[in-house]
């Protein structure tokens, strides 16, 4: 961006045009549109451990982000369930780290991922799960591979948007679309049949569920978690 365009952008910002919210806050426009924060930079009360009522002390708040400080924190999920929604969040993974974002999670299975599709979080360069392209960050885990243009190195913040609208699942990472598929449609059935989930009873069977964050034993951070429920 040249000097003239930088000056123009600065004048727009000072005039209040195109302004965005600070971390973990909503703009007035977002509030009017029905967005809700899942984390305000301080309060973890909207989250609890999978099959638990409380939250492990391994999940902490650090510099305005939710941080899994080490292994043993357990997977966590929202107290509320969601059907059709637009979910936005930022994540950052430690070197060699692995984590994930779950949707449509329930607590009837042994693990949080028993029935819940996962959007992968990974240090694509160092973690050994990088051998399959469907296991790289931003992918629909073990089903749809994210394009390289969506990837950033470990230690950098990534922006994810997950849109679920009447069965149509669309995901973007860092502004790049990584997933577009209709859950239970023909393409979905083909992908499931070719994945590790082929013989998992109840996988993705829910029409509503919790949002989940994974403890894969590695340090990971989340911020700017917000959701807008869609009208049916």
TrEMBL record:
Q: What range does the record give for the signal peptide?
A: 1-21
Give residue ranges for domain 3-keto-alpha-glucoside-1,2-lyase/3-keto-2-hydroxy-glucal hydratase: 34-228
Could you tell me which Pfam families the record lists for this protein?
3keto-disac_hyd
Q: Which keywords accompany this UniProt record?
A: Signal
MF terms in GO: hydrolase activity
> What's the protein name?
DUF1080 domain-containing protein
């Amino acid at each position: 961006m040249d000097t003239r365009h930088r000056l123009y952008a600065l004048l727009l910002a000072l005039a209040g045009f195109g302004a965005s919210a600070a971390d973990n806050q909503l703009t007035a426009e977002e509030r009017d549109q029905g967005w809700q924060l899942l984390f305000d930079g301080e309060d973890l009360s909207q989250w609890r451990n999978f099959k638990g009522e409380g939250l492990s002390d391994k999940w902490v708040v650090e510099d305005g982000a939710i941080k899994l400080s080490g292994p043993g924190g357990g997977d966590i999920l929202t107290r509320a369930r969601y059907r059709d929604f637009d979910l936005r969040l930022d994540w950052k993974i430690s070197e060699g780290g692995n984590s994930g974002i779950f949707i449509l999670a329930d607590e009837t299975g042994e693990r949080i991922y028993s029935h819940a599709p996962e959007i992968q979080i990974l240090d694509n360069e160092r973690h050994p799960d990088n051998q399959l392209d469907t296991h790289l960050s931003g992918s629909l885990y073990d089903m749809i591979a994210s394009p390289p243009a969506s990837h950033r190195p470990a230690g950098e913040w990534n922006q994810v948007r997950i849109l679920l609208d009447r069965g149509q699942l669309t995901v973007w990472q860092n502004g790049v679309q990584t997933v577009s598929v209709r859950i239970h449609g023909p393409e979905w059935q083909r992908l499931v049949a070719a994945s590790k989930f082929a013989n998992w009873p109840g996988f993705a069977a829910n029409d509503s569920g919790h949002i989940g964050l994974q403890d894969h034993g590695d340090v990971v951070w989340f911020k700017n978690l917000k959701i807008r429920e869609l009208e049916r």
